[in-house]
Amino acid sequence: MNRLIYESRDPDLSKIALDDLPGGAEAFELVAKFCYGIAVDLTAANISGLRCAAEYLEMTEDLEEGNLIFKTEAFLSYVVLSSWRDSILVLKSCEKLSPWAENLQIVRRCSESIAWKACANPKGIRWAYTGKPPMIDSSPSRNQLVPPDWWFEDVSILRIDHFVRVITAIKVKGMRFDLIGASIMHYAAKWLPGLIKDSAGSADDGSNSSNSSSSSWKGGLHMIVAGTKDDPSSVHAKDQRMIIESLISIIPPQKDSVSCSFLLHLLRMANMLKVAPALVTELEKRVGMQFEQATLPDLLIPSYNKSETLFDVDLVQRLLEHFLVQEQTETSSPSRQSLSDQRGTNPNAKMRVARLVDSYLTEVSRDRNLSLTKFQVLAEALPESARTCDDGLYRAIDSYLKAHPSLTEHERKRLCRVMDCQKLSIDACMHAAQNERLPLRVVVQVLFSEQVKISNAIANGSMKEAGEAQYQLMIPNRKTLLEATPQSFQEGWNAAKKDINTLKFELETVKTKYLELQNDMENLQRQFDKMINKKQTSAWSSGWKKLSKFTKITTIENHDIGNHSQVPAATIDQNRKTPRRWRNSIS
């Protein structure tokens, strides 16, 4: 203070303003009492402010032994850091003393003290402090079992930057990753009331017990920014964005450290508050690691990017891609594959994800702005082996067709290609056979698939053992389905049924005509073969007969010429004409 007066060069100076004194007027009052020899009671609530004020006022041992810096340091080292409750309170009071508390290592020492006590055996530690009225017995009895999450509530009252310091120190000490993840979820439920629905009232329970500050802590994040004129809502959004970014950065890398529902809620708020894209991508990868644990309500994330669709379908597509990449990595790696085989989650995970995607498609298909391409890409992202039954996919397709009645015939056929009719159950087949929105070709495929299943069941003898019981069970299902079907479906089914019967009749007619033509062709072929065989046989036999006759005639003719030289010329010419006619017939 002497230096400040000397540097002012003002002989009429009567007042000195110490605006940047850490701890404010309360700390200065305690310092003044100490200078005048008045007893000052050092407590966990005022020790951090006194230590920073003493450093600011340069109250060192060079001026006098046992000065304020020495006494506050001794109190911090031997009293505060040995107590769980005092360490929490001092670290909480350091929120208003930045950067002095950081430079004097008060934050680091308190964080390490809290981390050491959280990882140690809690017996004998005053662990029951939660910012609420003190309990009758502040330490657990010997027979009382201490819960593993005993430190969650105490640590959750800290500001986000100090909470990150504590969690980082706890990680170094070797705390179980699932407990660290649970503490992060507990902290998020307190400071982000909109993150988890059930945590709306939990934020009010953790109000600050210290009323020394004019802005007491009420379970929310209240940061005093000097000279700011920003809108309170924008400041609150900025604070929440900082909390989300900090929580993402400290989540343990292990798969099940936090629940998938928590990650999806965090991802929803991250998209809403425009968190850094790199952190959002990291969070999406974390969700993909345990995507099979997700539920449909958690996936229905609104689109905050001014997209045409109501829900963020592209986000779910990216999550599914991260899941498939993770599954492929586990399959290709021998060590990871052995772990996944021991847990038995690899095939079942894909089936659960397939059911989840089908339910999601059914929900978002009601959006008229959802394009056919996005629907088809998301439906075909999973391999065929992931779906053992396509009933859920059929429901999604039917819902999409209902919400988009203006689709062309080509687009409807393209949409139905993502579904395998052979994987539909009997109830789904019966509904599809009556669905007027499906293309006629798909209806025929469904009917054929249903008949094939029934034929296979009869061939295997499964329906013979059941007898008429199964058939009687199927009739009520069919009647119930018909009663629940709108009248337009039934009228459309009647028209489609007539077309199907006409096609069947024409097909049978064509088959009959084909068989008749085939029989006629065979008869004609046989007759033609007989005629060829008969013609060849008669020609050769007649030729040999005529040849033998010719030899006889020539012999007789020569004999007659020798014996009867007076035969008329006309008779001779007539006999010569016969062989000529024979030659012509042979040729």
Which key phrases capture this entry?
587 residues, mainly alpha, 26 helices, elongated, ubl conjugation pathway, NPH3 domain-containing protein, SKP1/BTB/POZ_sf
Structural notes for this entry:
- Residues 577-587 have a biased composition (Basic residues).
- With 587 residues, the protein is an all-alpha fold.
- The protein has a domain at 1-119.
- The protein contains 26 helices and no strands.
- Helix 12 packs antiparallel against helix 13 (277-289).
- It is elongated and about 150 Å long.
- The N and C termini lie far apart (150 Å).
Q: What is the molecular shape?
A: elongated
Gyration radius, to the nearest Å?
48 Å
Secondary structure tally: strands: 0
Number of helices: 26
Largest sheet: none
Taking the alpha carbons of the first and last residues, their distance comes to 150 Å
Average pLDDT taken over every residue: 78
Content of β-strand: under 5%
What quaternary form is this?
single chain
Q: Helical amount among residues, as a percent range?
A: 55-70%
What string gives the helices and strands in order?
HHHHHHHHHHHHHHHHHHHHHHHHHH
Secondary-structure-derived class:
mainly alpha
Low-confidence stretches: 127-140, 198-230, 339-344, 471-482, 564-583
Summarize the SSE layout with pairings:
Blueprint: H1 2-8, H2 24-35, H3 47-56, H4 68-80, H5 84-93, H6 100-103, H7 106-119, H8 152-155, H9 160-173, H10 177-191, H11 232-250, H12 260-272, H13 277-289, H14 296-299, H15 313-332, H16 334-343, H17 346-364, H18 372-379, H19 391-403, H20 409-416, H21 426-433, H22 440-460, H23 462-466, H24 468-484, H25 487-563, H26 569-586
Helix pairs in contact: 2-3, 3-4, 5-7, 7-9, 9-11, 12-13, 13-15, 15-16, 17-19, 21-22, 25-26
Family: Belongs to the NPH3 family.
InterPro entries: NPH3/RPT2-like (IPR043454), NPH3_dom (IPR027356), SKP1/BTB/POZ_sf (IPR011333)
Coiled coil: 500-534
